[in-house]
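so ive been stuck on this for like two days lol. basically i have the seq below and the ligand is pyridoxal-5'-phosphate, smiles is in there too. i just want the complex predicted, nothing fancy, no docking runs or whatever. if the output looks off dont worry ill sanity check it later, just need somthing to start from for the group meeting slides
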Amino acid sequence: MDSPGSVSLTFAAVQRAGEVVAATLPATPLVAHPVLDRTVGRTILVKHEHVLPTGSFKVRGGVHLGATLTETERRVGLVTTSTGNHAQSVAFAARAAGVQATIVMPRCAPEVKRDAVEALGAQVIVHGDGLGEAAAYARSLAVDGGYVDPTDPRIILGHATAYLELFTAVPALGALYVPIGSGTGAAGACVVRDALAPDCAVIGVQSSSAPAGWRSWRSGRIETAAATTRASGLATTSGYPATLATLRAGLADFVLVSDDEIDAAARLLATRAGTLAEGAGAAALAGLIAQVQAPSGGPGSDRPVAVVCTGANASADEIARLAGSVAAA
Ligand SMILES: Cc1ncc(COP(=O)(O)O)c(C=O)c1O
């Protein structure tokens, strides 16, 4: 491939990405957990993305990226920035492609994720308090063309393959809840939903302690906000130009949940669905619960809904809080 900029976000491109990703990664389970349904009061299917290598859906983006690297990227190596799951994804793909990877991670990135990135053979540089500072530094390091933007269209197409699997298996969903940091997963979900399940409402979920994406979605402009959330996968400090228009056109709703609601959802996944999720991985369920408890009851209450459990890489603090008796740090 000559230019990643020539890739566009279409359903046909998602289908092609699906073939690429399926050559490396298994389809993830879509599972009903009746006791979770009884607890929440809704018929729920959980898309278990956390079982993938690297423990999150982000590896789909890395696998697709790795199959579509430019000559320049292969030559100079890859530089990117992430709080951890995109980092592992790029490290995973770079190792498979025999390419050097350097990942700039902000200080708020959990130790478990830094360790995992290093174990995949990438160089980790810790820089900046948040993603914005880390990204600026990563760009400055990658002067000769190896910077991998976390919202690169090749990555969004890879992430969209989760929803190709989901909507191919169950086109009659009433609603799908997707956690949002930069919005790559949710944008991919909207593209696939438009083609395969136009009646399904896609609902974004973000932490109220990192609401930049939500603010941007509401205003239609790129907004910034502090990210103090404990859910590292959702700790974005800005909206993202690559996903904003797709999210504005495609999301039926975008809900904010508190970090405590995310913790409560993570506990339900652990105790009612046998699933260890990191905070970002539990956020979709938190969003569903918030809507079920709201007066409207949320969209699609007459049909099954899906939540995507996007990640397993819980920090030591997150695991401690699963017991429910440990105060938040
Ligand atoms: C586990 C997990 N869930 C959700 C997200 C948010 O995904 P996106 O940045 O594509 O919106 C991330 C981002 O890193 C993540 O790691």
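The chain has a mean pLDDT of 94. Residues 59-141 form a domain with the Rossmann fold fold (CATH 3.40.50.1100).
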